[in-house]
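[step 3/7] inverse_fold.run input=structure_tokens len=264
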């Protein structure tokens, strides 16, 4: 299990079990992180469409939309399996052995929507854009948040952070004072809290994930993570899960999140 969130594989398996079983008594008998996640995902606690998507995992040899998953996740699933598993995944199953191998290799991968072009304007569009567009959007959202927090903190902090995130931070600082970002990035205390402890090589995507987390449900968290290269996706999944319970009133408004980076 990840340090602060739930491991993506645990969420997928627990969601599929909850959708296929739906029995609270059985869920209470399952221990560990899978049991906890399964109880949280029981039918009745999520929309019908989401339950159907989870159920699809348990019936298909490979999850829907597998081509939209970054290849690094598939490679990780194939580790330790015979070479035949690679062909089984590529052909979406086959005979009972191939179907079993394909399911084993892709068990941690959620069903994915088809990739569609266009900017991110909602969570629904965020889970459909390609990996480069998603990474760029999260990075810009994080840059806006960090620029705002540093503007409150003062010049010395801006200089220190600029060494880590460079030009993106300077561009964000120039745009956040104008509509639609001005006054829509969240309360200063909440923005500062989202930026704490994030100044590493993935600082901006971390902060971006924290900013959007209150809007993103369990399945969408996994879909966003699996669209990206696995090392970054694991970070995104952890940050989204950790911040999922944050007060939505502290989050940026969607008009700010969806604004093109060139705006302002």
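[step 3/7] decode complete -> sequence:
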């Amino acid at each position: 299990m990840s340090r602060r969130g739930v491991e993506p594989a645990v969420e997928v398996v627990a969601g599929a079990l909850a959708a296929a079983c739906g029995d609270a008594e059985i869920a209470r008998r399952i221990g560990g992180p899978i049991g906890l996640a399964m109880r949280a995902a029981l039918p009745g606690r999520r929309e019908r469409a989401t339950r159907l998507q989870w159920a699809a995992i348990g019936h298909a040899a490979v999850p829907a939309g597998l081509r939209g998953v970054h290849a690094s996740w598939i490679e990780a699933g194939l580790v330790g399996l015979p070479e035949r598993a690679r062909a089984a995944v590529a052909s979406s199953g086959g005979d009972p052995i191939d179907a079993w191998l394909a399911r084993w290799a892709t068990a941690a991968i959620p069903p994915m929507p088809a990739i569609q072009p266009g900017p991110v304007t909602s969570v629904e569009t965020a889970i459909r854009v390609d990996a480069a567009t998603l990474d760029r959007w999260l990075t810009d959202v994080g840059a806006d948040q960090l620029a705002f927090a540093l503007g409150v903190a003062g010049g010395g902090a801006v200089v220190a952070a600029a060494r880590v995130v460079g030009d993106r931070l300077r561009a964000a600082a120039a745009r956040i004072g104008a509509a639609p970002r001005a006054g829509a990035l969240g309360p200063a205390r909440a923005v500062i809290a989202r930026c704490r402890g994030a100044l590493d090589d993935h600082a901006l995507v971390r902060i971006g994930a924290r900013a959007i987390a209150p809007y993103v449900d369990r399945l969408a968290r996994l879909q966003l993570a699996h669209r990206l290269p696995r090392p970054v996706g694991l970070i995104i999944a952890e940050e989204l899960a950790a911040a999922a319970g944050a007060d939505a009133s502290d989050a940026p408004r969607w008009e700010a999140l969806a604004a093109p980076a060139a705006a302002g």
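[step 4/7] annotate
Residues 1-61 form one domain.
Confidence is low (pLDDT under 50) at residues 1-5.
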